[in-house]
Records
---
Amino acid sequence: METKTTTDALREPRRKLALVIGIGDYEKIRKIKNPRNDAMDISSVLTSIGFSVTIERNLAYQNMASICKNFTQQIEAEDMVLFYFSGHGAGWEGQNYLLPKDFDGSNKKLNKSAVRVQSILEDINDRKPFVSILILECSREYRAPNGRMNKKVHGVGESYSALLGLQQMTPQPGTVIAFACASGTIAIEREEKERNSLFTKHLLQHITTPNEDIQIILCNVQKAVADETHSKQIPFLSTALLKKKIYLSSQVEEKPWLDLQYHQNSTESIKQPHELGEIMGYPTKDIKDGILNRIQGSMIGMALGDALGAHVEFRPREFLLQNPVADLEGGGTWGLEKGQFTDDTSMALCLAASLVCRRDFVPYDQLVRYKWWYKHGYMSSTGRCFDIGAATSDSLHEFEHRQQCFATTYKIPIEKLDFLSDAGLLTKFNVKCSSSGVAGNGALMRLAPVPLFFYRHSVHAVEYSGFSGMITHGDQKAYDACRYYGALIVATLQGARKEELLDNEFYEKHSSWFKPVPLVSEIMKIAHGSYKQKGGYDAGIRGKGYIVNALEAALWAFWSEENFEKGALAAVNLGDDTDTTAAIYGQLAGAYYGYGNLPEKWLQHVYAKNFLLGLSKWIAYEGEIWQPNKRSLLTTSPASMSSQQNTVVIPFDHQELDAKKTPLTPKISNVSSQQTFTRETRRARPSDGTEQHTVTPFTLTSRRAPMSQVTEKNRPYENAKNDSQPQSRTTISTATNSTFGSNSLFTRQSVAKNNNQGSSTKPSSKNTTKKNTGSQKKP
């Protein structure tokens, strides 16, 4: 197998687009069982190798013609384009036609009731693609009453005629054409139990081969079909390529190092980010230094802020007045090594991995990766999830509950649930897994990858920023805080000066980015400069878990100091949710100051720095390739948010109530066992000053271990629908594994490619309940 070199960068497509159609449920001619599965499986494998796939099934003529036309109109110069069809086809008067489900069997009006293949190819090639690939699994016999067909089939009565295959086609330059069998013949019918058509079966086995030229792949498929049928069926191939080494898949593009991976011979020891950085590939194209400096600055700045505040997380302002943080340190609340990060950066890495792997905004995949982090320690600096907010925990339990219901409804194998790629199927899954009124800072702490990826498309970047938070934090304030902060990061990457970012009229000057939903009053107040308080904490600035407080505090730190280091320290020394306040600050400040201006004395201690820098390159690379299409914003439906604008359930007099938690690790010094800590905001309720907070000891689970079964008895999100129910935060002890150095290092295949993805072990359900006072919580 060839190794891809940097010289191949000149032959890389801009994007990879595919239209996949399967029609088997014909109304007036013979039905076929395989096309539905053919289309689903081809769509899945194309998605896995980086194609943006449009999949359609059982289309009538008008709909089919319209979809083909709309697809070709999305093509831009230098895109790689693949068209796949499984169903009935007909060759008639020198042309080939794809038959829709409502085709009536009469060839007299075939040109007006079926889609002409040559027209599709002409429309594609008019867009000047990198390469056009046409694959037709439609050389099947069908009988049409009283029709004139190309050839008669022996044994068919005079009142019927039949088609023997498609007619030969001559490809235009830069085109590859493949039929399931030779022209003038029909494909061999498969047994009823077979899932796929014969040609497609072998295509599925070869098409994902990395670093293999498309012509070699199709020749291998051709040989495999001929061997299986003893040369009774030989696929037709015709190419007119103008380029060499045209790869459908490259090992670098597949990014297996972003899969959920375990060490060799282990079902418990997960590969951590610092190990992934040793095996990751890098984009072959150069990235503009100025943009890369800002993207890397934002990602590393977030991790630095997180690590800077981690060792004093939950410490009150009074403690930090007496013991101000002046430098990056380890130990403290979580017993981490200097430079290790917490849940803030871990979840941001999950989000970044989803954007880079899926090359698009796919909320379902984002939730899957958050679930991997929660269950398996994916993207954690310690190899385990040791700190998770109640809102996030509740949403992830709700997500898995919905997955289980979804699997039952659509008959999806459980082991495939985390790897769904059918866009049509995913639109049926409700990814908004949070109850309304959840406004913790967990939505904002992980935001950066979204505006960094989409900054070239401002409206999309802002809307996706809001929606990325909404899937786990359902309040309008969380949505708007993410939109506003995302807009600031977008403007930063577009070259805005600091005074422009801090302009009290920034929102009004960029109002087109936020349409059609305006900001709620709490976020609008911040946009108009409420954070510009010279007195800082004494003037009301708070580093709390409530997203409004968190946004205001991060912007105050950015406004009040002239460099990254001073601003990060100012954010941490506000106290309370120190790591998240500083992580939020770091996203914007890092993007503005750039990676090259971050404190060198801190950079040398950043955990998994090479991985973060490499992932930043992929964010820049894939973000540059991404282009919006007509479906880009359908999953977010900004208009649907307007119904929540007046459902504000956290009145001002309840925002400052603090939920309290006793730390689990004995490594915290100078803190009484009764010391309390600020947490994420809960929904408002008449407070009696107390609430129940659950502390869950960590139990290491295998990759086959499911999250606790969600039932009516233990489903916290059900109770949370009542505004009187407080939120809490689940905290997992790290006392037994406080540093990344204590984990064993082995090698293991990724879960995505492992066939044993079922469940056999459940995590421990032992909880201890502590009665605490107050109400402010982190995500």
Note: The chain has two domains: 15-153+161-252, 262-343+374-384+428-652.
---
Amino acid sequence: MPARNVAANFEVGHYDTESRYRHSSGATIWFQVNVSMLRDSSGELTGYLALHTDITERRHQDEELRRSNDRYHRAAQAVAGYIYEHDLQTGEIYRSSGFFDVLGYDPQIAPPNFDWWREQVNAADLPQLDSVTANSIREGEQFSLEYRAQHADGSYRWLWDRGLVVRDENGVAECIVGFISDISARRSAETSLRESEANFRQLANSMPQIVWASNPRGIPDYFNRRWYEYSGLEQDLVGSDTWDNFYHPADAGRVRAEWETAMAHRVAFRSELRLRDKHGGYRWFLCRANPMLDAATGEITRWFGTATDIDEQKRAAETQHFLSEVGVVLSGSLDPQIILQEVTRLAVPHLGDWCFVALKNNDGVPEMVVAAHRSAEEVEGFWKRHSKYGFEAGADKGMPYVVRTGEPEIIERLDNDFWRAVFPSPAYQQEVTAVGHRSSMIVPLEVRGQILGAIGFTYAETENYYSDQDLPLAMEIARRAAIAIENARLYRQLQDADRRKDEFLAMLAHELRNPLAAISGARTLMDELLEGEAKIITGTPRAILERQVAQLSRLVDDLLDVSRITRGKIELRRKEVDFTEIVRNALDGVRPLILSRRHNLRVELPESAVTVNADPARLGQIVSNLVTNAAKYTDPGGQILVRMEKAEAEVKLYVSDNGTGLSPEMLQSIWGLFVQSDRTLERSQGGLGIGLTLVKSLAEMHGGRVAATSGGTGKGSEFLVALPLLNAQEEVTSLTTNTVTLHPAPPQVAAEPVSKLQLNLSNTGTKGRILVVDDNEDAAVMLCAWLEGNGHDVQVAHDGAQGLILACGWQPDVALLDIGMPGMDGYEVARKLRSLPEGRGMRLIAVTGYGQPADRDLAYEAGFDFHLTKPVDMEELMKMIDG
């Protein structure tokens, strides 16, 4: 025993301590040492009494308890919360130091009783706390609840209280030991999550698309409201893999394969498919889904997807594609039977399993003309049935009804009543029912208010049914088909009319040759019989007669050529010819026209021969028509160029002028039959408008081509004829041209009076002044001679402007005006004369080739007193002149 301890406690009289001793085994033993001093009666120390008690076990227990307390305090400090012990007998509560961290109260200062704690709990949560605590004390051992308690700063924090009721050996609750942690952050996150979830559901339910979510295998666990509205289900699909039940049978296999691929590759899913609705129908959807991947493993944790209704767009696209195909079919033929066969072929199976077309016959009764099905045997069976039984014309349903009323008909589900109404024969009803038609749609074939027939569709094998949604497409098909049928009929009528026109032209040309032959023969006979002065006096009219007969012959030849070409009856007599020689000969033939119009003609031709395989007469006709056309549509004194060049395997002949030119619109149609570049009266050049048509037709018959270019109206034109060379290897890079220029004769002075033909006709002296205005010199000369022979004083002008000058200066009693003249037409001359004092009293007579009623009205509106159509009846003319 340490001496100092004894000395320190000497005055006390006893000493207690705990000391360690080493056992003989080497182990340390703890003893409780109690030392008492022994004294005599006088107080003198006589000795010590020491008591040693082995406390090794107790010291071990105390050490373990200390260590346990240390662990407890470290654990209490480590967790986000605090430990409490609630003595149920005293009501006192012990709280660990974490109480401050959780609620901001110092556990040494906060009242250690349950009543104070209840005051801190949110009033809304207090009933739950009391109820759970009471139930646990009464019946249970452990409890867990969440509630709010007030923090020292005045705010409320969410707490998670987990407690254990400790009972004595009799089962009486002694205390509650528990742990309280702050879960405000978690509750806030949960609140945010719930709000986010609510927002998501609100957003998803407001979307027009179907929105869904699923587990990694694709089994859905969420759908928005749109799905249930569409499918008619409540919650049947959630949690079950029954997507296939809603796929269209034709899409199911493909969609499942696409889904498996997306899952295997962990990529987005996208597919267009049809989903069944609550009525059993199908609509097209665009389905998209994106996988949510685990950041660590890359595995799919969830799928989120949408299904967007694209039925209208899909059907619109399919409809547009289908209508495009129909348009190609309808434009590809002008045979009604072929048109209908192709349309029905396209309609199956796009619009049904069957398609039928019935057209009205001459009695207005529908006759079936086309039937279509994927099976030729089924179609053959239909025709056997129909030829045996036919239609009931007065039926109040089906094809007869639609054709009769023009109203479309949709029978969603066909039944026996329908078949009895359409087919009165029980045998036919039985046979047609066996085919399995389940739904029908029939629409009229109508164009311009006329019902041509009807087109019908039925579903048989396919489990589809028609509705009003199908009607617009069927009506559009029927409309297009009806127009095509009507166009085909009109085309046949046009073909018939064109054939009759060709036959008429051929007949007219042949019939005109007879009087022309007689006139030509009579003129020839006059040449032979007349002698002396009579032959001299009649020289001018006989020359006029010869020229006009030749002109009529050319017109008749053109008509015959057009008739032969359009009917394919013209034959070429081809041989090797020099194209340059053909051009020279043709130009000799049109030289008089060139000279009469005072044109400057320039010709550029190769010096060497240009050999082609052609009919020389027809080739000359091509050149003559082109140059004549240039001369006619170029004002007097114009420039015309004819040039030839070789290029590769062809020779090109160009005829260009600086004449009236061609508008862009006219360039597209100038080669058409009976087309003239300018049909206004002041530009009237005569002819039938068939010269260029013959050029094009004859050039193409020779394997060549034609083209026309122009800078526009008033800027001249250039026409090209290209023909294949007989020897394509001929040298074409070096071409020497031979240029010839035909200079015009000096122009006639407009003011000089035209020489008149003197005829020895009986007359009674001068009767009056008459002005003749006509651009046809032969016609003007003959009319002038006849009028002078009848005693009139006559002046002649060959255009409107000259006629107006003569009329105002000479002031005739009567003016005979042609209508179609270059520069100023007859209508304009008449209007100007009526506006001038010199012409207001003048008698104006229109002498023209325009003889339609509308032409007469225009003449009277312009100021003419009379209207005569060429050839003029001279007796009638004299009556008008004499008034």
Note: The domain at 79-188 is CATH 3.30.450.20 (Beta-Lactamase).
---
Amino acid sequence: MSVSKRQIRILEILSNQDSFMTVNELADEIKVSVRTVYYDLDQIQLMMPDQFELIRRPGLGVRGQWKKTMTEKLTTQEFDDEYVYMQIFKQLVIDSKTITILNLSSEYYVSTTSIVEHLSQIESKVSSSSQLQLISDHLGTRVQGSEYQRQQLMIDFNNHILEQLGPNTTLDHFAEMLKRFYDTDIVEAASNFQEDIKELNLRIVAPYYQFNIFSVLIVMMQRIRNNYHIESIEHNSSGKNIYALNHYVIAQTLFEKMKSTVIFEETESDIYTLAVYLQGYRLEFETIQHEFVHSYQDIARDLIKKMSLAINEDLTQDDLLLNNLSVHLYHMDYRMKHNIIIRNPLLSEIIKDFRLMYDLVWLMMDTENEINMLTVTEDEVGFLLLHFQTALDRRQSSRMIYVVSQNSYVSQDFILSRIRTVVSSLDVIKIVDPEAILNVDTNQIDLIISTIPLETMATPYALVSPLITSNDLLIIAQKYQNMLTTTTFKENNTFNHYTNPKFIYFMKDASSKEEILNEMLSDLIEFDYIDERYAISVWTREKEGGTFVGNATAVPHGSIKYVKETIIPIWINKTPVKWGDNKVQIVFLYAISNDDLKNSKTIIKSILNFLKDNKNLPKEVQSMDFNTFKHLVYGG
């Protein structure tokens, strides 16, 4: 059923009116009977409930307004693909409607081929669950199966919208977008949950969880209102599910608060399902004790001990890290076992800025997965990394910087503010006169900045003008950077101590990622560098998250538990091969043994430094022979 030209004319008239029109006035305007106008108004209300709001008032007449900016789309009879896809998803999944291809084609003014393509996209998402299916028969097309899985699909749909909005979006902006697909009063009721949790003495542990809780509340209320409920759940009264039962009270209370503005009737299974989500998303009564968290302290201690060894920083005495990590591991394990997925909105930035730490955390968690059966995703690794990075930031020692300056017309505040722009805010800066510097033990100073010439000294030294010009700042920044990287040269090619020319696969003709990894792993097994289980752990790692590091390069790895002797094989392919969503030509497979755990940071850092220093390697290698490349790796 499609909108007729006469009905389009009615829509145009009503949308341009600021006040009510009587049906008689409308009939006169378009030269039809009053009865026909009533019929057309009923049809518009029936066919376009999501696009056009028709307001009827006895004694006043009728007026209308677009719910979205649809005028141009309707009059030109064009809808963009994303809009059509989302509306079909809404009808099939959110509203549980049975649709037909012809009706959708007519409704959105697109070809039946386009509708079929959109249905194919939805079917691929539906089929990812073993308990949902897209059914097509003489009645039309519909989604059938588990209500719980349907709601999971709706939550994923909301996550897609959230990702499109970007990491800086607000809850209010997210809410406005969701009003296009869910009932407005439900979205508004869910929007008030932040006030509700304050009133109920609840707390959200981290800001990003609020979007997850908000999304779940909307999905569940929408489905419950339409009389769709989660299937009966067999409650497990042992283990961690007891903790979920604590959240049953929170879930029940939240539903009651929502029912003050929205009418719906939840079941026991609905309440319990919300409790499981709230537990996973860490919404808690302030008085709830983490009685199960203590069992994760041993895992956290072991993880901290391994990371301390790997990065050569003793974090074992950091009680705050131990506590935060224990709580996070408990909730992470709970989420994984209940299939509650949290997206890390900053994952790409985390990997880019902290690639070394990210890979190290992956290595350590691979071991914990083997020992304690802890499952982890790349999103969760990103969250775990931040705990360690924060601990490192707390440990960062202040550097001592002395500024030698004679009394002059330039104030000390001016000098300090200028220098602060190019050094760490944690550094200590002292301004002294030329005589005072002679009585200071310069071995305790990291950098000297002077406005007058000084005698030659071992401490890094920058000569600048009293005004600290832009050029002076460049000099200071260079000296400061040199001070920070004095050990970089020593570490630059550390990985080459663990390579073997026998395992440098130069200018190979592999056609796939599988071919590359299988040959490398088979050789390492044959020469007794690794256990066969290491190969399995490499493939598991590849499935859990990408190992592409940019510039046509990948750095795959597996569990250190199955490495007998550290080895870093290198593969150079003649042409790039598909590696997940990317193309890869260079592969460094780092197999680090437990005995070399203390060197893992240096090894991985040296690989990343080598790739950074040879950023044109994918092109340059085409003109190299094996000996030239070997010289590049080993030097000398």
Note: The chain has 28 helices and 15 strands.
---
Amino acid sequence: MKRKQTLTFKLITGGTAAVLLPLLVVGYFSVTRASEGLAKLSEEQAVHLARNFSEMVEIVLSEEIKLTRELSVGNATIKAVTKAEGSGIENAAEEIGKLDMKLANAMKELGEHYETILTTDAAGIVFADARGGKFKGISTADREYFQIAKRGQSNVSEPVVSKLSGNPVVPVAAPVYSSETGNFAGTVITVLKLEFLSEKITSVRIGKTGYPYILDKKGLCIAHPDKDIVFKTDINTLKGMEEVAKAVSEGETGVRSYLFRGKRKIAGYAPVKINGWYVVVTKDEDEFMTAAYAIRKVILIVTGISLTLTLFAVVWLARSISRPILRVIEGLTEGAVQVSSAAQEVSSGGQSLAENASEQAASMEETSATLEQISAMSQETAKLTRGAEILMTENIVKSGQSLKALVELTLKMSQIEADSDRVRQIIRTIDDIAFQTNLLALNAAVEAARAGEAGSGFAVVADEVRNLALHTAAAARSTQDLLDANILRVSEATLSIRNINDDFEGIIESATTMGEKTSSITGASRDQASSIAQISKAVNEVEQVTQSMAAGAEESAAAAEELLAQAEEMKQFVNDLSAIVGSKTYNYEKTDSNAGRQES
């Protein structure tokens, strides 16, 4: 059987894992984030340095163009060039001599960073220089810088090999115009030694492995700390620098990673706007990650120290935990034995109590049945009196409604009497109108008779009006007679309704008194039924309590048996716990009423 791992071993293993895993996760993310942040910072620094160097180169070249322009507009220069254009170089010897002296003095002032200063005619032939005539007669007509100056633009040439010294130089050319014709008459060329510019840039070191270098606009290296690379290395042909070469050819400013001579490098690059050169600042990628490696080393050291301290702390904690547990195990062992003995006694007493409670529950059940019968009869009596009360209440309500209807009918009959008087007045008015109409018709007939034959038609109309008035008067009298008869009948009906109304009021009063007495009987019956129900409920509760006691006693006996079984199971748990902690185990032997134990 496989041996169980002890609690001490689990605590040590778990505590170590709980400390080690977070340290590893934090360390991994710290190194990753630090590497990314340092790489980004270094890239930004490379671009920033490249821009600074490109601006410095641009400032130097701008100053060279400015110097060359100042020489091209000097009096000695313009006089010599104008004379040579108009009279020929042979006839301008005096002016050319003065110009040679001026150029030589300028060379002394400028220092040794220049190879020479030249002046050419319109055909590009050098006729004056600062080196005592060493460069006279050399043609610059095939040089790009001369062609650009001829078009009227001062410019910085691409680095070229000097025709006299064979050294790489950077010519700066500016046009010279004739003072007589105003046309292009020649150029002034300051020849800057490339090594001067190269030393300014390549002497700078960036960290241990970083340095800047310069490319011309075609990608050829023209300044580099390694002299063997200058004028011999074109980045367009180098494997691993394709992305840098593409970015340079497109005029971008940025940073790229590339492979050079088997080493990964980071290059920041920026253009020199004045002539299209590029300044590149490069550094080994490993140097970028030096800080990240240092952080990783610190994290590993901290992890090791933390792990060692954790092991000591966990061992101490495991021991401090296991010792109290051992004491608890011994206490549990003693408790298990005592619980087993007590459970047997509780089981015996519970069974006796269950038998007595069962007998009492049977007696309470008979009493409860009798009370339930009495309660049912009381509820039936209350139900009957409640029905009589409801019928009486309905009778009172309906009588009230009938009384209300009789009152409304009486009011309407009184209104009919009042309206009949108004109708009588209207009929009397109609009778008066018919009488007046009859008089008018008689007058009209008299007037028609006086008129003779001319009024005979009018007499007919007057006669018809008189007949109509008579009929109207007769109809009004008939209506008056009928109305008087109706008014008499309405008065008699009103009197009868008032008598009925008085009788209904007496009926309602008697019904109300009867309803109150019935309600009192109903309330008393309800109270009696409620009291009996409460008594029955109390008896039922006593019965339930008795049954609960019986059930509880049975459950107590069962629980005691269960407790006894659990005590035996707890003994086994104690042995398992002892095995986990790594302590001694116990063997238990049952007796008749107590349990003993033997240590092993």
Note: The radius of gyration is 68 Å.
